[in-house]
Amino acid sequence: MDSLEKYIELATANNPSVQKKLTEYEVYLKKTVQAGVLPDPQLDAGLFFSPMELVDGRQYADLRLMQMFPWFGVLRNAENEMRLLSLAKHEEYIDSQLQLVYDVKRVWYELFRLRRETAISEKNMEILRQIEQLSLVRYKAAATGAEGETGGLTDLYRIRIEEGDLRNRIASLGNREKSTLALFNSYLDRPPASDVHTGEVLPRDTLVLIMPRFSEPGNNNIPVLRMISLETESYGARKKMAVGMGYPMLGLGLAYSVIGRSDMAASSMNGKDMIMPMVSLTLPVYRKKYAAMREEAELLSRAGSQNYRAVSGSLTAEWYAALQLYQDARQRMDVYDEQYTLASKTLEIMLKNFSVSSVSLTDVLRVVQQTLDYELMQLGAVTDLNTAGAWLMRLMAVRENQKNTKE
């Protein structure tokens, strides 16, 4: 029987969005390898269809091989930039996993809630049917007379109206369950109607053991903040690379001339091939381009720092909101537990009294509705508690293995 932990494992292994982030990380690893490599050497070849007469022979061909070398540090900084960006992509991949885990938990809890609401509503339908049978007995046993018959029929009609409302609620819950089930299976990359097991009971407090160890999100363990920090650091490497690109590139090479003998040449070098070392130098005279590249890197770095502060503040605000929901759910859970217990006992007593005609149907139906409401609110509080706990774990970047270790 599959558990929530098993579904999380399946989702992280199969979800296309998460796998896409992993593939993007692997792409940047390949870019890192490319960035630190010298440019390809250049080979030029020239062939004379009609040999050129020289002083020392006849030239048939000319070959030139040249290797360009960027300024010191350009390749190192280019590789460092890609390395930092690949690490940022890895943090983005981890963040997508955390978001997926939260989404799976949130929708699983919602699916659990819908199914339990359906079960509770069906249980209340049975209670209404029991009340209907008691009302029917009272109706048949009542003294004959128009007023008595009318009152008994009115009670039966009111009960059937309540049953109709409850049937409509159950049907609506069933429709919502189908759409929620399809959403949940989409996270696991499965067919929409695939069966999902949710069990009968949710944990009453998911973070009570580990909450004291956590405060608001720290900057050192949040993947999205680490991602922004690494991206900002990569812009520093890009700026250094732009500075280096503003200096000349040095080229080293060889020129080889194929020379044949000439009857007209009397020199001792007649017919000897020529080898000549070569040096080339680029002239980065268009300075505006390189200045703009440096300024671009500086602006990107500034934007990265601003984004870091904005995201950090947003995460802190979300953490306080999630903590408030978590604490509110715990408080509501305790209150509704007590109220549901009292309402259930009251309903049990009133059903016994109703069977002997000592209470009115109006009072019974009111208590039935109260019992239903408190049980649903009790269920909602437990579900909200678990959902808020999952949200806090998402914001604190706590993985399932970390949670289990701390527990």
Please give a handful of descriptors for the protein shown:
single chain; rod-shaped; Outer membrane efflux proteins (OEP); alpha+beta; four-stranded antiparallel beta sheet; 2 domains; 407 residues
> Whole-number radius of gyration?
39 Å
Number of helical regions: 8
Structural class: alpha+beta
Number of strands: 4
**Distance separating the two termini:** 24 Å
CATH topology of the largest domain: Outer membrane efflux proteins (OEP)
The arrangement of helices and strands along the chain is HHEEHHHEEHHH
Assigned CATH superfamily of the largest domain: Outer membrane efflux proteins (OEP)
For the record, the CATH class of the largest domain is Mainly Alpha
Low-confidence stretches: none
Helix fraction?
55-70%
Strand content: 5-15%
Strand order of the largest sheet: 1-2-3-4
CATH architecture of the largest domain: Up-down Bundle
Q: Sheet bearing the most strands, described?
A: 4 strands, antiparallel
Number of domains: 2
* Mean pLDDT across all amino acids: 88
Principal-axis shape: rod-shaped
Give an overview of the whole structure:
By secondary structure, this protein is of the alpha+beta class. It folds into 2 domains: 4-37 and 70-247 and 284-406, Outer membrane efflux proteins (OEP); 41-69 and 249-283. Helices cover 68% and strands 11% of the residues. It is built from 8 helices and 4 strands. The chain has helices at residues 4-14, 16-35, 74-141, 146-187, 223-245, 287-355, 361-395, 400-406; strands at 42-54, 57-69, 250-260, 274-281. The chain has a 4-stranded antiparallel β-sheet with strand order 1-2-3-4, with no helix packed on it. It is rod-shaped and about 145 Å long. The two termini are 24 Å apart. The model has no long low-confidence stretch (mean pLDDT 88).
